[in-house]
Amino acid sequence: FRRAAISKAEEGLVSMCEERARMLQDQFAVSVNHVHALAILVATFHYEKHPPALDQVTFAEYTARTSFERPLLSGVAYAQRVVHAYRESFERQQGWIIKTMRHEPSPVQDEYAPVIYSQETVSYIEGLDMMSGEEDRENILRSRASGKAVLTRPFRLMSDHLGVVLTFPVYLDDLTADAKEEDRVAATAGYLGGAFDVESLVENLLRQLAGNQELVVNVYDVTNNSNPLLMYGSEVPLGNPSPSHICMLDFGDPFRKHHMICRYRNKP
Ligand code: WA2
């Protein structure tokens, strides 16, 4: 009887964990797809129309009205690529100077990625050089070299919540799928991205599910298997003996690996 009771509990753990992993992965995927569409919107209306048929007011309104399509993102923005030789004319044209993510005037760099369009929920990144943050910078470089959506490792976002940043490159010319890295870099116009506020938005998602009270859920970035990085939940003390179940997660960036670990709060 004891054995049967344990396996019944473990069965419940497996199915509840799989349900949560599937939901999280699906909501992640729809959010990424919609950011992809926003990158195409910027290419179409900012770069393929002369003069551009997009401005901050239009971008803010469109992204606010479509935010339901991106349930796990706290906000999206577009950062334009500015090489140093064009910095002065860019700043004169915009009427403001490029600042770092620490809100200081940007020192001289080879190039910058100042935010020119933002959803109102992340308006605090307007005018900031996203290459001035280590995680954001790595994402920008990796996305434009590959032409694909990329994710940062989990880190404290400017909102002070734990999360990850998603970045899509925007190119000036149409590139073929097999375009070389140097051609991609040369054709880069900017970066469309957003912040997955994992800490608060995944909490909301899980709260709605039956069994939430009895389950402890953690998500880790396990890209480096010997150094798992906490992405959601609180760190479980080492040597916790209660049974756990692990579900693999696919967030669409083949460079990163993630998984979900579920446990019962009180041993069954
Ligand atoms: N967006 C919102 N909060 C953040 C953040 C970010 N990056 N980085 C740290 N906190 C415009 O990749 C381009 C958004 C970066 C995109």
UniProtKB/TrEMBL annotation:
Signal peptide: none annotated. Coiled coil: none annotated. The chain holds residues 60 to 327 of 823 of the full protein. It is found in: Endomembrane system. Cytokinin receptor related to bacterial two-component regulators. Functions as a histidine kinase and transmits the stress signal to a downstream MAPK cascade. Homodimer. It comes from the Eukaryota. This is histidine kinase. Residues 50-261 form the CHASE domain.
